[in-house]
């Protein structure tokens, strides 16, 4: 084994741990509040403790996990209050990032968005919940990248964590024909968002993503409302 290979391997393992933890959290494989065992993660990914701790601090800063003195790291908690706060903040952040993307997106950004959208459409057609949630997350994250605003990205990343987890929570029930129709509407709205960004139509981009968020709210409310949740979703 060459010296360069030796130097690169830990970095690759750390990147793999980073990707794996993010996906396990947003897919709910790691439940909200679950303890993250630093020793087990070190052994699973062949890393020493310092790079694992460094990654934990990074994930905590982005909102994936919670770190408290003298307590093990835990996956960020989620409650019905999260649902309320999400729907208060999400329209503001999604509209802002989408409109900025319409101003600043490059041709390469559009290509990446269309590639992600193809995966999202496939996940809808195959009724693949995990991929559907994952590629929806990637779609809105890529729009945030195209917006090129460092002040909005931390808020967008935090919203996307709970957007994915709320989706995994409320879409586990069998898909009804009505819900499937609304999911197809979401696919069309994604296409419309890309088209508006590509033609630099900030007004249309904002209007479409606002309607898109309202559709998402109604989809999730369908599962919440019958349980008597006292949250103002409008």
Short précis:
By secondary structure, this protein is an all-alpha fold.
Main sheet? 2 strands, antiparallel
- The total beta strand count reads 2
Overall mean pLDDT? 87
Count of separate DSSP helical elements: 9
Cα shape:
globular
Strand arrangement, largest sheet? Answer: 1-2
Low-confidence stretches: 1-8, 225-234
**Helix proportion range:** over 70%
Beta-strand residue fraction: under 5%
The end-to-end span amounts to 60 Å
The structure class reads mainly alpha
Order of helices and strands: HHHEEHHHHHH
CA radius of gyration is: 19 Å
Overview of the molecule:
The protein is mainly alpha-helical. It contains nine helices and two strands; from the N terminus they run αααββαααααα. A two-stranded antiparallel sheet has the order 1-2. β1 and β2 (74-75) form a beta hairpin. Residues 1-8 and 225-234 have low confidence and may be disordered.
Task: Give structural attributes.
single chain; 234 residues; mainly alpha; two-stranded antiparallel sheet; 74% helix; disordered N terminus; disordered C terminus
Q: What order do the helices and strands come in, and which of them pair?
A:
Layout: H1 3-26, H2 38-45, H3 49-62, E1 65-66, E2 74-75, H4 80-104, H5 107-125, H6 129-147, H7 153-170, H8 177-198, H9 202-224
Antiparallel strand pairs: 1-2
Helix pairs in contact: 1-3, 4-6, 4-7, 4-8, 4-9, 5-6, 5-8, 6-7, 8-9
């Amino acid at each position: 084994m060459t010296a360069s290979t030796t130097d690169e391997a830990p970095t690759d393992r750390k990147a793999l741990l980073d990707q794996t933890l993010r996906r396990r959290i947003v897919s709910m494989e790691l439940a909200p509040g679950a303890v993250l065992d630093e020793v087990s993660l070190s052994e699973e990914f062949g890393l020493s403790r310092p790079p694992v701790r460094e990654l934990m601090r990074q994930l905590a800063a982005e909102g994936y996990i919670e770190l408290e003195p003298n307590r093990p790291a835990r996956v960020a908690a989620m409650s019905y209050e999260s649902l309320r706060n999400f729907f208060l903040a999400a329209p503001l952040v999604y509209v802002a990032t989408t409109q900025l993307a319409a101003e600043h997106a490059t041709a390469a950004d559009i290509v990446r968005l269309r590639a992600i959208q193809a995966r999202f459409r496939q996940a809808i057609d195959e009724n693949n919940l995990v991929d559907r949630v994952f590629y929806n997350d990637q779609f809105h994250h890529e729009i945030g990248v195209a917006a090129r605003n460092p002040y909005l990205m931390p808020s967008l990343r935090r919203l996307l964590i709970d957007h994915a987890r709320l989706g995994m929570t409320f879409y586990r029930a069998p898909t009804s024909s009505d819900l499937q129709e609304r999911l197809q509407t979401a696919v069309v709205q994604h296409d419309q968002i890309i088209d508006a960004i590509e033609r630099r139509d900030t007004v249309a981009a904002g209007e479409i993503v606002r309607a898109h968020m309202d559709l998402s709210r109604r989809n999730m409310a369908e599962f919440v409302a019958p349980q008597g949740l006292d949250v103002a979703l409008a």
